[in-house]
Amino acid sequence: MARILGYIAASLDGLIAAEDDTLDWLFQYDGMDLGEHDYRLFIQRIRTVVMGRGTYDFLARDPSPWPYGAQRCIVVTSRPIDDPKGPLETRSDVDALIGELRGLDDGDVWMLGGGALQMAFLERGALDELEIYVIPEMLGGGRPLFPLTGFRASPTLLSAKALDRGCVRLHYSFAPASEGSG
After folding, report:
1. I need a surface site. Which of 36, 73, 147, 152 has the fewest CB within 10 A?
2. SS in 3 state form for the chain?
3. 0.85 exceeded by the pTM?
C-alpha cells in the first residue's frame, strides 16, 4: 500500500507563498544543503505526484520543462486542462482519489503544493507523514501552510533537525503510533 506524504517548505510565520503568490523568498535558498533530506533524494522514491489546480497552474506558467515526467501526475480539478504542460491525469473526487491512491503498490505518493489539498487529505485521515521545512524568513502575509478549517489533530513528531542556513526539518506522522515510521 502506498504511503501518502507531504513535503513542503514554509516561512517562519507559517506561509508557503508571499502575498503576490511568488516563491522568491524560498528560491533564494536553492542550493541549501539538506543532506539525506534533499528534494532530489525524496523525489526518487515518489511514484505518484498529486497536486491541486492552483499548484498545476503555477507550475505550468514556469518556462522550465515539466519536472514530473518520471512520475504519474494527478491534478485534482473540476475544470478541464487544455494543452497540459506535461503528462498528467485529472480527478475531481477526492474521496475516490484517496481510494485509488491507497490501492497503489508501486511507490509513495507526494501531495505537492499548497495546503488546501493536503488539508482535504488530513481531514479524511489520508496523509500519512508530513515533512515541513521551516525557512528562516518572515513574510508578513501570503498563503498559509494550511487553511483554518477547524480540523484538529495531534500528529507524532518523528524527528526535528536543524539543517543548513537556519532551516529546520520537522517530520510528523499522522498514522497511529504503531504504524509510524522514522
Report:
1. 152
2. CCCEEEEEEEECCCEEEECCCCCHHHHCCCCCCCHHHCHHHHHHCEEEEEEEHHHHHHHHHCCCCCCCCCCEEEEECCCCCCCCCCCCEEECCHHHHHHHHHCCCCCEEEEECCHHHHHHHHHCCCCCEEEEEEECCCCCCEEECCCCCCCCCCCEEEEEEECHHHCEEEEEECCCHHHCCC
3. yes
